[in-house]
Amino acid sequence: MRLPSINKPWPFSRYQIALVLLAVLPLVAVFGLLARWRGQDLRDSGNQGMLRTAEALSLVVDREIGIVRSSLETLAESEAIDRRDIAAFSREASRVAERWPGSWIVLTDRSGPQLINTSLPAGTPLPNRLAMDSAQVGERELPIGTARDIRKVFAVGTANNSHLFTSIAQKRPVIAVNAPVVRDGAIGYVVSITFPPQGLIDLISVGLQGAGRRTTLIDGNGFIVARSQQPDLIATRVPATFGVPLEDGPATGIRTVTALTGEPAYLAYARSPVTGWTVAFTVLKADADREVATGLLRTGVVGVIGLVLSILLALWFGRRLRSPMLALAAKASGKPAAMPGTAFLSSELVEIDRAIDAGSRAREAEAIERERRLAAEARREEADAANRAKDQFLAMVGHELRNPLAAISNAATVMGQAPATGPSMIPIMKRQLEHLRKLVDDLLDVARVTSGKFALVSEEVDLFELAATCVADFVRTGRSADHQLNVKGENVCIYADSDRMAQVLTNLVDNALKFTPATGTITVSVMTEGPEALLRVEDTGDGILGDELLHILSRAWRPRTGARAREVAGRSAARPHQRRERGSRQRSRVHRENAADPMRRTWQRA
């Protein structure tokens, strides 16, 4: 970029004075206008901050109730209920209740009887919850019991939370979260967790600073569930002068009210659509006005300080600007640095601009050339690697295809010379043709994987039955006639593609037969190892060289010697005799063992 020229150079002091005037005069005018509007801006920003605080605290309460609901819904899926093992379910419920101090869990039958109550000792007679309907003793007293919410769960089939009520058993204010227990599309039970509201005080007290700031959590009936200060007001009804709409009216708002302490205050509230509760955030009016005045004072002080500092900095930088400019120009152009003159001339800026442009163009050209060289070298290396991989792959495919083709050709030649040998040659040709078909199928699978069209169809698979079927096929076709082929283990179910699993197992066993000497032993075993299913193929053949273990998963790789690498493992979470959940992910890894081990192993984990 070329800087515009100036017809007549100015002394630098003139530029300095102009710079200070341009900086100070607009700031003075703008500061006067801002001081006029700053008070209202502080008030508006304070109100919006209060509203955001109320909404954020409401979300915090919703998240905590959501966590409780999720825990109940998970507990409702317990297998102990399916087995009708009440004792086991009671133990699970007690562990869940321990997450929230002072809470207990109740399982209610559809007809009303309580099946368990973790707050009472085992064997204690439990009342019928639906027979003791929720009752409100007086307008300013809490409802007793939560039968209405239990009935709503049975009727609607979704989890809910109660408002504040008095526990029949504990005789104190509590909150309940209820979730249905659904089996075969029908609601058989309702599981409820009841806890004191004091546990919510820490949630609504997050981020509060100042004695005049208070947060109050109010339920749909107008009772105080929790309060950041004055906890003795919990379970009392808020007065009408507090000005918080309950179930009617807007969900959020800001207004001036009389605080619960009797003082004027600003109120911001947010009602949750999840719980039906309202978070009311109040700031005493005296404290808020004091904050506005303090903010205006701070703004004025900062403005004056900034104005003074801007002038001083402009003067300070102005006096010292010439020397760095000339030194930069001399350094960029390769000339010795000269002492700055007394005048600020535009020729100095032009000289700096030209030097910087020249240096930038040289560096850019050098960087572009270096990137081009690196890119060309990388392309050559990639092309060489691709050509080597292609040559290796074609050599392997040619070698694998040549063996069955040679056998078929020899059989055809023998049949042509001696037609009587035709019946004995046909099985040979069929076996070789089957081998060719497998090779072609494998090549097609490779093509599908490379093109991204390889698809897996997941279903429940019994690994032991799959292994037994695979071994039976090898024995029936006579491919294991010279070896001892065994299968052992237990029934283990996983969620996988049965055809691909059978293909993997067939390849592993076929590989073991190929490289295990005659009269050798191949053992296929299925077992569990912790939360995993383990499919293992073991043989008594040779091991593989340790330095070749790193290459066993490389495409088209073959050992340089008779040693082989066949230890491949794939992992995925599973349990015996249990169906895996849909959407689970599988992991894979390579498992290597010492080549000196006399028993070579191939593991397939699922």
| Low-confidence runs of at least 5 consecutive residues | 341-345, 561-605
Could you tell me how far the N terminus lies from the C terminus, measured between alpha carbons in angstroms? 65 Å
In terms of quaternary structure, the protein is single chain
Find the count of extended strands (DSSP E, 2+ residues).
21
Radius of gyration, in angstroms, nearest whole number: 41 Å
Task: Name the CATH superfamily classification of one domain.
Answer: Histidine kinase-like ATPase, C-terminal domain
CATH fold call of one domain: Heat Shock Protein 90
The number of helical runs is: 11
CATH class of one domain: Alpha Beta
The mean pLDDT is: 76
| Sheet of most strands | 6 strands, antiparallel
Structure summarized in a few sentences:
This protein is an alpha+beta fold and 606 residues long. It has helices at 12-76, 79-82, 86-97, 147-156, 201-204, 285-319, 322-333, 346-417, 422-451, 463-477, 498-515; strands at 104-109, 114-117, 135-136, 143-144, 160-161, 165-166, 173-183, 186-195, 213-218, 224-227, 252-258, 264-271, 278-284, 459-462, 484-489, 493-496, 521-529, 532-539, 568-571, 587-590, 600-605.
